[in-house]
Structures are given as structure tokens and as C-alpha cells.
Design goal:
Blueprint (H helix, E strand, L loop, with lengths): L5 H31 L4 H4 L13 H9 L2 H32 L3 H12 L3 H13 L6 H26 L2 H9 L4 H12 L1 H17 L2 H6 L7 H6 L9 H21 L1 H10 L5
Helix pairs in contact: 1-13, 3-13, 4-5, 4-7, 4-10, 5-7, 7-10, 8-9, 10-13, 10-14
């Protein structure tokens, strides 16, 4: 029977303690948000905080009944789906071109859009949308969210396309395939894990983004992130409603991540190692 040295036991205890501390730091705000969404405002703001308080579904009922929740959820779905599809349509060919024609510098310029503060784009976008009378319009919100999603797609897919052997593509072009056919018939099918990861991360980034929709959306196109902001008033904050809205907003990305976690990890690691 193999004996475990006391040092190994100490190291294992230390590692488990680190994991517990990290999980506590990550999960505590989420649990507190979920619990607060089931409490009355007077209990949420009580000091010292109450660990045990009456439970109520009033915050969720008000969220659904008085805030046109169904319409707002549809708005979020339209904006996120549109920006993800448009980002994939533009980002995947751009990443392939950057990989095959050694245009990483141009890809870096695209990444600057993701690295730069959103406020740099907000004012020009607002002026253009105002001049074209496209405020409170799905198209404007989809285009602005594509600024967030496309750089992520380009840089994730760039590493996948760089890993593909060029010999296979050259053989296909000798047989008469065009560059676009090579992309459609060879490169994209071989990069499905990367495409899946890119689409998932684009969905999450667009779903959570707040700034552009705050200024460019209106009553007809308001997404969930902006609707949650309505619970913050000038003189008071409806903490219960805000926590309920934040919980609802957090659920779709969490469920999506849980279902695709295996493919997400596989896709992220597949393009991370150079051959």
C-alpha cells in the first residue's frame, strides 16, 4: 500500500483551501444576489444584514407583470442573435484571410475595437443613428454590438485557421476550388470547435453589454440589461426588483455555459497550442 508523505497531505490541504476560497469569492455575490431577489427591500437594506428573512416572489411577479418582461426578453434575443450571426459572418472570413495572407497586423487593429472603451464609439454611433433616424432601431443595436463580438471572433478563429495544414487547401485549389470554396468546404468544417466557442462567447458578451443599448435603445428595443437599470431611481433604489432582474439576466449565460462547458474547454484549448 502506497504511503502518503505528510508534505503531500499539506500540499493537498493547501490546494483545496485555495479552491474553496476562490469559489467562495466567485459564488458569494451570485448567491447573495439570488437570495436578495427573494426578499423584501426592508430586509435587503437592513443593517446588520439579516441571514434569515421572509421569502417572497413579489419581485419576480412585479418584474413580469409591470415591466413588459416578455417583450424586453425578445428584444435581447433579437439583438444578441443578430450581432452574433453578423459577427460570425464577418469575423470568420476575416480571421481566415488574416491567417492565410499573414495580415495579423490588420487583425490587431480589429482587436483594438474590443480593447478600447465603448464610450469612444458611443458618441459617433449616436450621431450617425440620430442623423439617419435609426435610434430605437434593432439594426443600429445589432451593428453596435457587432463591434463587441467581431474582434473576439477574429482572434479566436485566427489561431484555429493558423493550425490548419495549408497542404490540404493547396491540393483543393489545384483541383479547381476557389479560395472561398476552400474556406467553405475545408477550413470551416475543420474549425467547428472554434466556431462554436466563438459563437458562445459572442452571445455572452453581447447579452451582457449595457452601454450602447442604454443610449441607442428606446421603449421599443430596450434589452434586459437596460430594463434592469430602470430600478435605480433618483432618490431610491428598488433593490428587490434590481436583484430579480439581475438574476434573470444571469440565467441564460449560466445555462448555456453549463450545457456547452465540455465543448467550450475543448475549443479554447484546441487552438491554443502551436504545432
Amino acid at each position: 500500500m502506497k504511503r502518503i508523505h505528510w508534505r503531500d497531505g499539506v500540499m493537498n490541504t493547501f490546494l483545496y483551501a485555495q479552491i474553496i476560497i476562490v469559489l467562495a469569492l466567485i459564488l458569494f455575490p451570485i448567491l447573495w444576489m439570488a437570495l436578495s431577489s427573494l426578499r423584501y427591500n426592508v430586509d435587503i437594506t437592513a443593517y446588520p444584514p439579516k441571514l434569515i428573512a421572509p421569502v417572497t416572489l413579489e419581485n419576480y411577479v412585479n418584474l413580469v407583470q409591470t415591466n413588459n418582461f416578455g417583450r424586453i426578453a425578445v428584444n435581447s434575443a433579437i439583438i444578441v442573435t443578430g450581432s452574433t450571426l453578423l459577427g460570425m459572418l464577418l469575423g470568420v472570413p476575416a480571421a481566415y484571410a488574416a491567417a492565410r495572407f499573414r495580415k495579423q497586423g490588420w487583425a490587431f487593429l480589429i482587436l483594438l475595437a474590443r480593447m478600447s472603451p465603448g464610450i469612444l464609439f458611443l458618441i459617433p454611433w449616436y450621431m450617425v443613428a440620430l442623423a439617419a433616424q435609426l435610434t430605437d432601431n434593432y439594426l443600429t443595436l445589432i451593428l453596435t454590438h457587432t463591434v463587441i463580438t467581431m474582434p473576439v471572433i477574429v482572434w479566436l478563429m485566427l489561431s484555429f485557421f493558423e493550425e490548419l495544414p495549408p497542404d490540404m487547401e493547396e491540393s483543393a485549389m489545384i483541383d479547381g476550388c476557389s479560395r472561398f470554396q476552400v474556406l467553405r468546404l475545408i477550413a470551416i468544417p475543420l474549425s467547428i470547435p472554434g466556431i462554436a466557442v466563438s459563437a458562445i462567447l459572442s452571445f455572452i458578451f453581447s447579452w451582457n453589454y449595457f452601454l450602447f443599448a442604454l443610449v441607442l435603445s428606446g421603449s421599443g428595443t430596450m434589452p434586459l440589461t437596460v430594463a434592469a437599470f430602470q430600478f435605480i431611481g433618483v432618490s431610491a433604489i428598488n433593490w428587490g426588483g434590481l436583484m430579480a432582474a439581475a438574476t434573470v439576466i444571469s440565467v441564460p449565460p449560466m445555462i448555456l455555459t453549463m450545457f456547452v462547458q465540455r465543448w467550450l474547454v475543448r475549443g479554447l484549448t484546441a487552438g491554443a497550442v502551436k504545432g
